[in-house]
């Protein structure tokens, strides 16, 4: 079991209100990702759930139990930190067994759980090494192992992949997703990387300045962003926004078109422009286009699209793929 | 990487300072060694002659030698235990967020700036004096018999005074080490259910081990040669109860005017220091791996 409920949780550091009030429901077994730009309060929110910070007001419930003032260790949660926070002078085995030792578990049971976790995470050969002798990915796995052995009701991840290089990050992303499928335990995952959010999450929580902008499944957010911020944050490359006359014809203050939703043509279309940088990836072509009214947009063409710097190009939004926003930036 | 040419040049450039330092060390050492084989008393000038190991024989068979040897080790050991233990405790306290932190830290460091003679005299006259001292006053306030510290427990008193001087140093080094402890590690331990005591034994203490080694090493070097505190308080007495090796060499040379015997004592002290250094280096090698 591992459902987490936040009821108007508020957090202030002195006079600075970091989280003005958050209500959120996390269901048992869900993979929830908190995503948002840096400084949006997503890590603080996670630390509030973990109990490493005290809430200023509001309530946190885990499985219906009020744990607002419970000590971190009593909440039955396990956390994986950004820096891994391994204990440098202990072997991998002792690192993983540490929470069990603190709980006063019998040595045989400790050993059984450690070797089980090591088996899941491919760490069996490294159990007697020190963290300093491991690579970044292995350290990451040790940190996860230390979380697994406690058999917590939910895992908390605080930007766990940000210290890894790009290739390893993709691997670990898949590994964590697989782990979630295998354990079927609630996971709360904090990241500023929307690709991680889109690929891993069952439910994404988009945060800005301590407020929840939108909650929903990855494709929900992609298809029906509630406002301009979410629309711009979800999707890669970012959504293009057009204002003024172009928006007027769609009866909106601003319209948004995703790079993959343009129809491209070298001869005719709704908006004319000049190709700036053209990125030819083979599978896709990304074109950075300066429209005639000065707006800079990005367009994606599938496969190869033979244009180059300085060429004329015409873009037309696909039917029904135009997002409309009002003066306040809310979706119409 | 340096080329061979650069290495040669670097050696040439360093050579003058190396030679100066070598001379600085080797001349006094050589002269001490030379005097230690001479019968050389300041009261009978012009009578110097070579007497082989006789000075060493006299010095080592002097009952005061073994007493002072024991006192030296007790002094070093006692002060180390108090300063490292107290230093860890103080560092843990000072690491807590509190009002007026900067001021408190300066106050804690203050004893280190006071010269040894002054602090020893302050302790002797203002704290430990059996008539006017603060301790005597406190004893009298509760109706107890005041203790004449320097007469009844001279070595312990000196250990106390020297500890008071060195506690700030240990605290300072250990505090900086403590502040470099990763806060996420502490939080992880908290999530893992470690209490304050477990966090201390499993995280803080191993993290401090290097700093503790450094404190022990540096303090030992200075504590082997404690002198001023003994001179101004007990003068090595009563009897030889608070005489350490340094003080014994001093009394041999400047109270008994026996330069030869004192030189032999000096060489013995050098050998002792080197034995201690070997042990320390091994210990350091282990913790710094």
Topology:
The complex is a heterodimer of chains A (332) and B (289).
Chain A: E1 4-13, E2 16-26, E3 31-35, H1 42-50, E4 57-62, E5 65-66, E6 77-80, H2 92-102, H3 107-120, H4 136-148, E7 154-158, H5 166-183, E8 186-191, H6 194-200, E9 203-208, E10 211-216, H7 218-223, H8 228-233, E11 240-243, H9 245-248, E12 254-257, E13 262-265, E14 271-280, E15 284-291, E16 296-302, E17 312-317, E18 323-325
Chain B: H1 4-36, E1 38-39, E2 49-50, H2 54-61, H3 63-94, H4 101-109, H5 116-127, H6 134-141, H7 149-152, H8 154-179, H9 183-191, H10 196-223, H11 228-233, H12 245-255, H13 259-288
Antiparallel strand pairs in B: 1-2
Helix pairs in contact in B: 1-13, 2-13, 3-8, 3-10, 3-12, 5-8, 8-10, 10-13, 12-13
Domain ABC transporter (chain A): 4-234
Keywords (chain A): ATP-binding, Nucleotide-binding, Transport
Family (chain A): Belongs to the ABC transporter superfamily.
Written account of the structure:
- The complex is a heterodimer of chains A (332) and B (289).
- Chain A has 332 residues and is α+β, with helices and mostly antiparallel strands.
- Chain A has two domains: 4-230, Rossmann fold (3-Layer(aba) Sandwich), CATH 3.40.50; 237-325, Beta Barrel (OB fold (Dihydrolipoamide Acetyltransferase, E2P)).
- Chain A is built from nine helices and 18 strands.
- Chain A has helices at 42-50, 92-102, 107-120, 136-148, 166-183, 194-200, 218-223, 228-233, 245-248; strands at residues 4-13, 16-26, 31-35, 57-62, 65-66, 77-80, 154-158, 186-191, 203-208, 211-216, 240-243, 254-257, 262-265, 271-280, 284-291, 296-302, 312-317, 323-325.
- In chain A, the strands form four sheets. Chain A has a six-stranded mixed sheet with strand order 6-7-8-3-9-10, with helices on both faces.
- The longest helix of chain A has 18 residues, at 166-183.
- Chain B is mostly helical.
- In chain B, 75% of the residues lie in helices and 1% in strands.
- Chain B has 13 helices and two strands.
- Chain B has helices at 4-36, 54-61, 63-94, 101-109, 116-127, 134-141, 149-152, 154-179, 183-191, 196-223, 228-233, 245-255, 259-288, and strands at residues 38-39, 49-50.
- A two-stranded antiparallel ribbon of chain B has the order 1-2.
- In chain B, helix 2 packs across helix 13 and helix 3 crosses helix 12 (245-255).
- Chain A binds chain B through residues 50, 52, 71-73, 77-79, 81-83, 85-90, 98-99, 102-103, 146, 150, and chain B through 182, 184-185, 187-195, 198, 202-203, 206-207.
